[in-house]
Amino acid sequence: MSVDFQSSLFDTATTPEVARIERRALSSGAWVDVARNWLADADDVFATLVRDVPWRAERRAMYDRVVDVPRLVYTYMIGEELPHPRLTTARDELTARYRPELGEPFRTAGCCFYRDGRDSVAWHGDTIGRGSTDDTMVAIVSLGDPRRLHLRPRDPERREEAFAVEMGHGDLVVMGGSCQRTWEHAVPKVASAGPRISVQFRPLNVF
Ligand SMILES: O=C(O)CCC(=O)C(=O)O
Ligand SMILES: [Fe+2]
């Protein structure tokens, strides 16, 4: 796969210890945490994932409705070695940071490859598993070209609360509380974008 990505432009990652996580409280008990430049070695992680993840096409029904999913995906399940040691470190740091609130570790790592601005994911909540009934967390590490994560309340009466978070190279975005069942998120198509990889860490039985 050829990827037109100038990694030198993005060589700004700090160490996770230095990055600050900022929380935005949302309605209905949902929240979003954002930490810029959270992942160290983001350039190397991105290049390794492009090369080594066994990407497969996905365009099918998912979540609680039929969702058009033009992007490449692969999910690392429990016990599967992650494709870069930095991701293992990242998962463990996320578990250390969030376990008091989450009550359990992050276990799986779903990877999505948005090849260009035409790749996207439509409005959904991660509600296949416990996200439909329980508070939980989905921690996203973004690599490559920035894309926007759009969020909106499920309740049509509250749609004016909708907003978007830019997910840049090495950034961490965590959706927590009731976010998967009371809010929806999407990564819409854009006129022009280079490749982006999203790594989503989730607890057991959250999809
Ligand atoms: O691209 C992203 O960071 C979000 C992906 C997502 O919401 C999902 O795969 O459930
Ligand atoms: Fe999602």
TrEMBL record:
<keyword id="KW-0223">Dioxygenase</keyword>
<dbReference type="InterPro" id="IPR027450">
    <property type="entry name" value="AlkB-like"/>
</dbReference>
<dbReference type="Pfam" id="PF13532">
    <property type="entry name" value="2OG-FeII_Oxy_2"/>
</dbReference>
<feature type="domain" description="Fe2OG dioxygenase">
    <location>
        <begin position="105"/>
        <end position="205"/>
    </location>
</feature>
<dbReference type="InterPro" id="IPR037151">
    <property type="entry name" value="AlkB-like_sf"/>
</dbReference>
<keyword id="KW-0560">Oxidoreductase</keyword>
<dbReference type="GO" id="GO:0051213">
    <property type="term" value="F:dioxygenase activity"/>
</dbReference>
<protein>
    <submittedName>
        <fullName>Alpha-ketoglutarate-dependent dioxygenase AlkB</fullName>
    </submittedName>
</protein>
<dbReference type="InterPro" id="IPR032854">
    <property type="entry name" value="ALKBH3"/>
</dbReference>
<dbReference type="InterPro" id="IPR005123">
    <property type="entry name" value="Oxoglu/Fe-dep_dioxygenase_dom"/>
</dbReference>
